[in-house]
Write a structure and sequence with these properties.
Blueprint (H helix, E strand, L loop, with lengths): L1 E3 H4 L10 H10 L3 E7 H4 L4 E10 L7 E6 L4 E6 L9 E6 L3 E2 L4 E2 L3 E3 L2 E3 L1 E3 L16 E2 L9 H4 L5 E6 L10 H12 L25 E4 L7 E8 L8 H9 L7 H13 L4 E4 L7 E6 L4 E4 L5 E4 L4 E4 L4 E4 L3 E2 L12 E7 L2 H11 L4 H6 L8 H15 L3 E2 L4 E3 L7 E6 H8 L5 H10 L3 E5 L3 E6 L9 H12 L22 H12 L3 E2 L5 E2 L1 H4 L6 E2 L10 E2 L4 H13 L5 E12 L11 E12 L1 E3 L8 E2 L2 H16 L5 E5 L6 E9 L2 E9 L1 H6 L6 E7 H4 L18 E10 L4 H11 L4 E10 L8 E10 L8 H19 L2 E2 L4
Parallel strand pairs: 14-17, 29-33
Antiparallel strand pairs: 1-13, 2-13, 3-4, 3-6, 4-5, 6-11, 6-12, 7-8, 9-10, 15-23, 15-24, 15-25, 16-23, 17-20, 18-19, 20-21, 21-22, 26-28, 27-28, 30-32, 31-32, 33-34, 34-40, 35-36, 37-38, 38-39, 39-40, 41-43, 41-44, 42-43
Length: 805
C-alpha cells in the first residue's frame, strides 16, 4: 500500500526526525517499507522557467526556437510542443537534469543544426500524467528560477508498505501515524471533525432515506449520510495531488472524497445517486440463487448464491464491500447523494471477491477486517469534505443500523510475564505509555500488571502474548540488548515419531506393507469392535463415526485388494482409535478414550507353488511367529506373555493375546467367517492388534557382547503326562525354579493328546540344556540334577514320566 509521508505528518508531529530514521523505524516496527519514492530527489534540478521569446525553427516546420529565462540566465531551447508560447511559465530542465520518464540526463544537443541547452517538460516526462503532447504550463504566480519541488509541492516521500494480513488497522494513513506516534513517543491526533456538526438543513435524514439490514450476520453495521443539492465537478488541486500520489486516478469531487477518506481512516465508502435508489431505500441482504449484476466497470457478473448485496426498494445496486453498480453511480447530473459507510463480515467479502475474481481497494480492506467503530466517523468526515468542496445541504443526523455492538476485548498483562517472554526488562512506565499510544484503554493499573481494553481496530489482539508482541515491536527489535554469553543446559531432543518410525522399519523388515485408512467410518463398521463416537457434522453417513479399532478399515483394504486380484497380503497400519467410556452422550474429553494402535494382517499364500516347493497358505501359527519376531526385534527378547484360547468370539474364530505386567498389550488370531462375509472376503484373514502405548513400556535390552561357551553343553529330554487343566507356562516356570544354576534353558518341543492317554490328559515334552562357564560337567552331576527334576515334577503335578512303567 502507498503512503504519503507528508499526509501522515498531519496526524503526528514528526518535526526534527530525519526521514531516513522514520522509514527505518517503520520497518523495524513491523510495517516493512518495500520501496521509497523521494520526490525531492526525483525532481531535483527542475525549475520554473519563463519563455521570453518563441520563433519558428529555421530548418523544421514543427519545431520552435525558444528563449527560456531562469531569472538569472537565458537559455536557447528547441521545443516541439504545439502549445508553447512566449510569456508562459513552464517546467524547465537545464543541462544535467535527469528526466523521470526514461531516466535519461539532459545534455547539450544540436537539433537540425541549432543548439539546444535544456528541455521544456510535459506532465508525462515528469510522470505526473500521461499527457505527452503538450508542455506543462504553470500559472504566472510562480517566480522563475523557483525549484519545482517547492512551486508544485513535489517534496513528498511516498512509501510502499507491505501490510501483513493481521494488521488491517495499518491500511490507512491514520493507522500508520498511530504506530509512528507510539514509536517516537509523539502526540497523535485525529483530523478536526468540528465541522461535522454543522448542519445546513433542518430536515431529518429519515425524511430522505431508510435503511433495512436483513442479513445482520454478514452486515453487523450500516451507516449512511444524505447530502442534497451537491455540485459534481473536478476536485480541488490539493485533493487531486493527494490521491494521485497514492496511485489513484481523480474522477470527480464526490468519488475523490470517498477515496480520500478510505485512505485516511481505512474505512471504504460508497456514494449512491439518491434519485436512482427506488423508494429512497437501502436494503442489505444476501442472494438466494445465481443472478447477474452489472458493476461500475460496465461488466456483467454472475453472482453465486449467498452473495451479500446492497439493494434499493426494488433491485440490487451494489455488491457489498466489493464494487458498486452501474445503475446508481454518481454522474454529472447527480444532485442528491447517500454516503454508505458499513462494516461487513470479512468472511463474506472474501468469499464473494474470490468467487468473482474481483479484488478492489474496498474488498482488500473489508476481507481483512476494518474497524466497526469507524463507520459513523468516516461518514461524517466525508460529509464534512463534500459540504466544503461540493456544496449542498446535509440532512440532520445519521442513519446507523447497529443492532449488536461489537465490543472491545479485555486483556490483562503481567509486567513480570513481559520480562520473561522478551528476555529483558521494559519499564512499567514505558509499557503503559506504549499501549496508550497504540490506542489501548487502561481500565486498571496495579503494581503487577495492566487491565486493558483492546480497540476494535485491532482484531488480531486477544491474548496477553499478543500485547507483549506489540510492546516488543514498538519498543524496537533493535533495542533488544546484546548478550555476550548464554549458559544453557543442553538436553537431548525428544522425537515423538521415533518409536513409530522404528515400528515401521521393523514391520517393513518382516515383509509387511503399510496401509493408511480413513479414521471415519459408518456406524456398522465402527460398531463391530467397540462403542463408537459420532461426530457432530459428518460429511456423509458413511463417515459419521470415529473408528473403534483398526480391524474394520484393514478388512476394507483386504476386500479392495481381492477385487483387483491381489490375494497375498502382508499389511500393517499405525493409527488412533476412539471409544466412548459409556453409551451416553459425550460431554467432555473424559467421556471417551483415544488410543494409538498397531495392526498386522496376513492373508493368502505364504509362497507360490514352484518346482522345488509346494504352495503353502499363511495360518494362525505363522501369524504368531511373526508377532513374536516383531517383539523380539523391538526389544531384543520376547518379553510379552501369551495365552491361547481355542474358542470363538464375535471377532475371532480362535485367538491369542499378549500381555505386559498383567496389561493386555495386544490380541489377534483368525477373523471369524461371519465378519469376513460382511466385507465380501472369501479367504482366511489373520490379524493382530497392539496397543502402542503399552509397547512403549517395554524396556529394550542393550546389545552386549558375550563370549561363546568354552565348555560342552549337555542336552536332556523328558516328557510327562499332565492333567489338561495344566498350562505349559506353569510347568516351565516350575522347572526353572527347581533347577540348579547349571540349567540354562528349558523349551517345549512337543504337545501330545490322545485317547490312549485319557480324555483329560495331555503330554508336554521338554528339552533341557545344561552347561557351566568355567568347567566341563560330569555325567554324574547331570544325571543327579536331571533325576531330581523328574522327581520334583512328578510330585508337584502328580505327573507321569512317559516311557516309564
Amino acid at each position: 500500500m502507498k503512503i504519503s509521508l507528508n499526509w501522515v505528518k498531519e496526524y503526528v508531529n514528526l518535526d526534527g526526525i530525519p526521514d531516513e530514521e522514520i522509514i527505518s523505524n517503520l520497518t523495524m516496527s513491523g510495517l516493512e517499507v518495500e520501496d521509497v519514492i523521494n520526490e525531492k530527489e526525483i525532481y531535483k534540478g527542475f525549475i520554473v522557467g519563463f519563455v521570453k521569446t518563441k520563433t519558428k525553427h529555421p530548418n523544421a516546420d514543427k519545431l520552435s526556437l525558444c528563449t527560456v529565462s531562469t531569472g538569472e540566465q537565458d537559455f536557447q531551447v528547441i521545443c516541439g510542443a504545439p502549445n508553447v508560447e512566449a510569456g508562459q511559465k513552464v517546467v524547465f530542465a537545464p543541462v544535467g537534469t535527469i528526466i523521470p520518464k526514461g531516466n535519461f540526463q539532459i545534455s547539450k544537443a544540436k537539433i537540425r543544426g541549432i543548439e539546444s541547452f535544456g528541455m521544456i517538460c510535459s506532465e508525462a516526462e515528469l510522470e505526473l500524467s500521461d499527457n505527452h503532447e503538450r508542455i506543462m504550463v504553470l500559472t504566472n504566480g510562480f517566480k522563475e528560477g523557483t525549484p519545482i519541488t517547492e512551486a508544485l509541492e513535489l517534496n513528498d516521500i511516498i512509501l510502499e508498505i507491505g501490510i501483513t494480513p493481521n494488521r488491517p488497522d495499518a491500511l490507512s494513513h491514520i493507522g500508520v501515524a498511530r504506530d509512528l506516534a507510539a514509536v517516537f513517543n509523539r502526540k497523535f491526533q485525529y483530523p478536526d471533525l468540528a465541522e461535522k456538526t454543522k448542519i445546513n438543513s433542518h430536515e431529518k435524514i429519515e425524511n430522505f432515506a431508510r435503511i433495512e439490514v436483513i442479513d445482520t450476520e454478514n452486515c453487523p453495521r450500516y451507516a449512511a449520510k444524505v447530502i442534497n443539492d451537491v455540485t459534481i465537478k473536478d476536485s480541488p488541486e490539493w485533493l487531486k495531488k493527494r490521491i494521485k500520489k497514492i496511485g489513484m486516478r481523480p474522477i470527480n469531487n464526490i468519488v475523490d472524497i470517498t477515496n480520500f477518506v478510505m485512505y485516511e481512516f481505512g474505512q471504504p465508502l460508497h456514494a449512491f445517486d439518491l434519485k436512482m435508489l427506488s423508494k429512497n431505500k437501502i436494503v442489505v441482504k444476501s442472494t438466494e440463487k445465481d443472478s447477474l449484476f452489472t458493476t461500475l466497470d460496465s461488466k456483467e457478473r454472475k453472482l453465486p448464491p449467498k452473495t451479500l448485496m446492497i439493494c434499493d426498494g426494488e433491485k440490487p445496486v451494489a455488491i457489498a464491500g466489493v464494487m458498486g453498480g452501474e445503475n446508481s453511480e454518481i454522474n454529472n447530473s447527480t444532485k442528491n447523494i447517500l454516503i454508505e459507510s458499513a462494516y461487513f463480515n470479512p468472511r463474506s467479502i472474501r468469499r464473494t471477491s474470490r468467487a468473482l475474481g474481483l479484488s478492489t481497494d474496498a474488498s482488500y480492506r473489508f476481507e481483512r477486517g476494518i474497524d466497526p467503530s469507524t463507520a459513523g466517523i468516516a461518514a461524517e468526515r466525508a460529509a464534512q469534505l463534500i459540504l466544503q468542496y461540493a456544496g449542498g445541504k446535509a440532512a440532520e443526523g445519521i442513519l446507523d443500523v447497529y443492532p449488536e455492538r461489537i465490543k472491545e476485548k479485555e486483556v490483562r498483562i503481567r509486567f513480570e510475564r513481559v520480562g520473561k517472554i522478551l528476555g529483558y526488562e521494559v519499564l512499567k512506565e514505558k509499557i503503559s505509555d506504549i499501549v496508550s499510544k497504540l490506542g489501548f484503554k487502561i481500565i486498571h493499573e496495579s503494581e503487577t500488571g495492566l487491565h486493558l481494553l483492546v480497540p476494535t481496530y485491532r482484531p488480531d489482539i486477544g491474548r496477553e502474548i499478543d500485547v507483549i508482541e506489540e510492546i516488543a515491536r514498538i519498543n524496537g527489535y533493535d533495542n533488544i540488548p546484546a548478550v555476550s554469553k548464554i549458559s544453557i543446559t543442553l538436553s537431548s531432543r525428544f522425537d515423538e515419531s521415533e518409536f513409530t518410525d522404528s515400528i515401521r522399519n521393523t514391520a517393513c523388515a518382516l515383509g509387511f506393507y503399510e496401509m493408511i485408512n480413513n479414521p471415519l467410518q459408518d456406524e456398522k463398521s465402527a460398531g463391530l469392535t467397540g462403542n463408537p463416537v459420532k461426530i457432530l457434522n459428518p460429511l456423509s453417513s458413511d463417515l459419521a463415526f470415529l473408528r473403534t479399532s483398526l480391524i474394520p478399515g484393514a478388512l476394507q483394504t483386504v476386500a479392495r485388494n481381492l477385487n483387483f486380484g491381489e490375494k497375498d497380503l502382508f499389511l500393517f497400519e499405525i493409527g488412533n482409535v476412539f471409544n466412548k467410556v459409556s453409551p451416553g452422550s459425550i460431554g467432555s474429553f473424559s467421556d471417551f478414550i483415544e488410543e494409538e494402535k498397531l495392526i498386522f494382517l496376513i492373508s493368502g499364500r505364504l509362497n507360490k507353488k514352484e518346482w522345488n516347493s509346494e504352495e503353502k497358505q499363511v495360518d494362525f501359527y505363522y501369524l504368531k511367529g511373526l508377532i513374536e519376531s516383531f517383539i523380539t526385534k523391538m526389544s531384543l527378547d520376547n518379553v510379552l506373555n501369551d495365552s491361547y484360547y481355542h474358542k470363538a468370539d464375535s471377532m475371532y474364530d480362535f485367538y491369542f493375546t499378549k500381555s505386559l505386567n498383567d496389561k493386555a498389550a495386544g490380541i489377534g488370531g483368525k477373523i471369524n467367517d461371519d465378519v469376513l462375509k460382511k466385507f465380501d472376503i472369501s479367504q482366511d484373514v489373520y490379524c493382530f492388534e497392539f496397543n502402542i502405548n503399552l509397547l512403549k513400556e517395554i524396556k529394550k535390552k542393550e546389545k552386549v557382547y558375550s563370549e561363546p561357551v568354552k565348555y560342552p553343553k549337555v542336552i536332556r529330554d523328558f516328557a510327562f503326562v499332565f492333567d489338561k487343566s495344566l498350562t505349559y507356562e506353569q510347568v516351565k516356570n516350575f522347572i526353572h525354579e527347581n533347577g540348579s544354576k547349571l540349567l540354562k534353558s528349558v523349551s517345549l518341543f512337543d504337545i501330545f493328546q490322545s485317547e490312549s492317554l485319557g480324555s483329560d490328559k495331555q503330554s508336554f515334552a521338554f528339552t533341557l540344556e545344561y552347561y557351566s562357564e568355567d568347567r566341563t560337567l560330569t555325567e554324574e552331576e547331570i544325571d543327579k540334577e536331571f533325576q531330581n527334576l523328574i522327581n520334583a515334577v512328578t510330585k508337584k503335578f502328580n505327573a507321569k514320566l512317559r516311557g516309564s512303567n
